[in-house]
Design a protein that fits this description.
Distance between the termini: 11 Å
Strand content: 15-25%
Shape: globular
Structural class: alpha+beta
Strand order of the largest sheet: 1-22-21-17-16-11-10
Number of helices: 19
Oligomer: single chain
Number of strands: 23
C-alpha cells in the first residue's frame, strides 16, 4: 500500500502491525509503535520471538539522531561443568533442508528483550507505557487465531521444543492435543506478567520473583544463569555502522554483531558490478550473488570472527585494502529458521524504527507462571562459531540480526530487516539490491525469488527463469538445490519505503504471513 499517511508498519503478523498502528492513531510516535508491536509479537509470533529473547532496534529520529539499541543476549558470568548441563540437540525440518539446533536450560543466555523495550520507550517514546502495552495484554488475555505460517512454525518445525516441558504443553496442548490449525492461542499468564511489568518496570523481570524462579530452575535443572547475570544486564546504545551504497547512506548493526558488517561487505563487493546491465534473475546475476555470498563467508573466516571484540574491527574489515583481493576474485569469477522476526515503522514526523528480535528456536524451558519461553542462543551454531561451550564469559553475543535503515538526504528511504538465522544477511542484501539496483516496486522487491549460498551449496527459490538456473547447474564447484516453493528458510524481510514525494509504502514478506498496517 502506498499513500500519504501518518505512519506505516510492516511486521511478521497482521496483529503485530495492527498493535503498532493502534498506538500511532493514539498519538504515539514510531518508537511507541515499535515497542507496542514488539510486545504484541511475543503473543502473535511465539515461535519466532519471546520476552526472554534478545534483539536490536535501529532508530532514526526526526532531528537526525541515529542510535542502535543493542539488547541482544549476553553470555553468563560463569560456566557450569558440562556434565551438569541440560543441553541436547534437536533437528528442525524446513521442508527442503534440515538444520540441527541445541536446546535445554544449558542453551539459555541472559535475555535482553524486556530491558530493551523499556529503555527504547524511556528514551524515545511519548505515550505512557501502560498505553503502549495494552494491545499485547489484550491479545494475550483474549487469544489470537493462528495464521497458516504460525501453525506451520509451531506444529511442523518447533514441535519437539515447544512441548518439551509441562509449561509449554499448557500453552500449545491445552486440551491434551496440539492446538489446531487456525486455533486460538491464549497466553493468560503472559497477560498477567506484562501487567505486572507495566507497574514494576524491567526490574520486575531481572530482579523480582520471575528472576528468582528462572535462576532456581537453572540451579536445579542444569542451566548457567544466576541472579547476578540478570541484575547486571544492560542495554548498550551504539553508533550504527554507516556505509555508502550507490549514493545512499546505509545504517546497520555494528560490531560485536556480525550481520550488519557482513551485509556492508557484500554491498561493497556488489557496488563494483553494473547489475542493471546484467539483468535481474539472469544466470550472471545469480552467479554474482553466489560469488558475493561465498566471498563474504570466506572473508568472515579470514578477518572477522577472531577479532569481534577488538576496536575498529569493522573499519579494518571494510577497508579498501581488505576488500581488494575479494573484489578481484569476484570480477574474475563473473567474467568467466532461524526463528527470528522483524518489524519496520515510519511515522509522519520523520522518525523510523527497524527492529529485529529473536528467541533462537527457544530452549524449551518456560518460566513457570509467565508463559515466557527462554532463548537458546548458546545452542545456535552460527552464534558460536568457535564451537559450543567455548564462549567467553559475560560478553554480548554476536548476532546475524541486522536491522537496517537506508537514508537519502538524511531522510528515511528504506527501513528493513529480516528473520532467518544464517539467511538474514543474504535476504536483506537481495531486497536492498532489488530496490536500489533494479528499481523494483517495493512489493516486487520483497516478493521476488531469492537465493542463498552456504557450505558449497547454492539454494534457489522457484520463480527464476528455468533456463537461467540450468546454466548454474553445470558448475561442478557447488551443489545446486532447487526449492519447490517459497519458504521461511529464505527470511522474512518486512519493509517500509518512503518516496521522495513523502508517500509511505509497506510490504510484508508472505514467506512468513506478515502484515502491513497504516494510519
Amino acid at each position: 500500500m502506498s499513500q500519504k499517511t501518518s505512519g506505516v508498519i510492516a511486521a511478521g503478523h497482521p496483529k503485530t502491525a495492527e498493535a503498532g498502528v493502534e498506538i500511532l492513531r493514539s498519538g504515539g510516535n514510531a518508537f511507541d509503535a515499535a515497542v507496542a508491536a514488539v510486545l504484541a509479537s511475543f503473543v502473535a509470533e511465539p515461535g519466532l520471538t519471546s520476552a526472554a529473547g534478545g534483539g536490536f532496534l535501529l532508530a532514526h529520529t526526526q532531528d537526525n539522531q541515529n542510535i542502535l539499541f543493542d539488547f541482544f543476549t549476553q553470555t553468563p558470568r560463569r560456566k557450569r561443568k558440562l556434565d551438569e548441563l541440560n543441553f541436547y540437540s534437536v533437528e528442525m525440518d524446513f521442508g527442503g533442508a534440515v538444520q540441527e539446533f541445541h536446546v535445554g536450560l544449558g542453551s539459555m543466555a541472559v535475555p535482553g528483550n524486556i530491558a530493551g523495550i523499556f529503555q527504547v520507550h524511556k528514551k524515545l517514546g511519548r505515550l505512557p507505557f501502560e498505553v503502549v502495552a495494552e494491545p499485547a495484554i489484550l491479545y494475550a488475555k483474549n487469544g489470537l487465531q493462528l495464521t497458516k505460517f504460525q501453525y506451520y512454525s509451531l506444529a511442523s518445525v518447533l514441535k519437539p521444543i515447544i512441548i518439551d516441558y509441562k509449561e509449554g504443553k499448557q500453552i500449545y496442548k491445552p486440551t491434551g492435543e496440539l492446538i489446531e490449525p487456525e486455533g486460538i492461542l491464549t497466553m493468560k499468564e503472559f497477560a498477567e506478567t506484562l501487567t505486572y511489568l507495566v507497574q514494576e518496570g524491567a526490574r520486575g523481570f531481572y530482579e523480582g520473583e520471575i528472576a528468582h524462579r528462572l535462576v532456581k530452575d537453572c540451579e536445579d535443572l542444569g542451566g548457567h544463569l544466576t541472579l547476578d547475570d540478570l541484575k547486571d544486564y544492560r542495554v548498550v546504545e551504539r553508533e550504527p555502522l554507516l556505509i555508502d551504497y550507490r549514493g545512499n547512506t546505509l545504517l546497520t548493526n555494528p560490531p560485536p554483531s556480525s550481520g550488519g558488517t557482513l551485509i556492508a561487505f557484500a554491498l561493497k563487493l556488489l557496488s563494483n558490478i553494473n547489475l542493471v546491465d546484467i539483468g535481474f534473475g539472469t544466470a550472471r546475476h545469480l552467479e554474482t550473488l553466489a560469488q558475493v555470498m561465498q566471498l563474504t563467508n570466506e572473508a568472515r573466516k579470514d578477518g572477522y570472527d577472531d577479532y569481534l571484540y577488538q576496536e575498529n574491527v569493522a573499519d579494518k574489515f571494510l577497508s579498501d585494502e581488505h576488500l581488494a583481493i575479494y573484489t578481484a576474485n569476484l570480477k574474475q569469477s563473473i567474467n568467466k529458521w532461524g526463528s527470528t522476526t522483524h518489524l519496520s515503522v515510519v511515522d509522519g514526523e520523520g522518525n523510523a524504527a527497524s527492529v529485529t528480535t529473536s528467541n533462537g528456536e527457544g530452549s524449551g524451558y518456560v518460566i513457570p507462571g509467565t508463559n515466557i519461553m527462554v532463548n537458546n542462543m548458546l545452542g545456535e551454531d552460527d552464534l558460536n562459531p568457535q564451537g559450543f561451550h567455548q564462549w567467553q564469559e559475560n560478553v554480548r553475543i554476536s548476532s546475524m540480526m541486522s536491522p537496517t535503515i537506508v537514508l537519502k538526504n538524511n531522510q528515511p528511504e528504506i527501513v528493513l530487516g529480516s528473520g532467518g538465522s544464517k539467511r538474514i544477511r543474504t535476504a536483506i542484501l537481495q531486497v536492498i539490491s532489488n530496490i536500489l539496483d533494479f528499481k523494483m516496486p517495493l512489493s516486487e522487491a520483497v516478493d521476488s525469488p531469492r537465493v542463498h549460498w552456504e557450505n558449497e551449496v547454492f539454494y534457489v527459490e522457484p520463480g527464476f527463469v528455468e533456463e537461467e538456473v540450468n546454466k548454474l547447474a553445470a558448475s561442478p564447484q557447488r551443489q545446486l538445490v532447487r526449492w519447490q516453493e517459497k519458504n521461511l528458510f529464505f527470511g522474512g524481510v518486512h519493509t517500509v519505503l518512503e518516496t521522495s514525494e513523502g508517500l509511505i509504502e509497506g510490504a510484508s514478506d508472505q514467506r512468513r504471513d506478515g502484515g502491513v498496517a497504516s494510519c
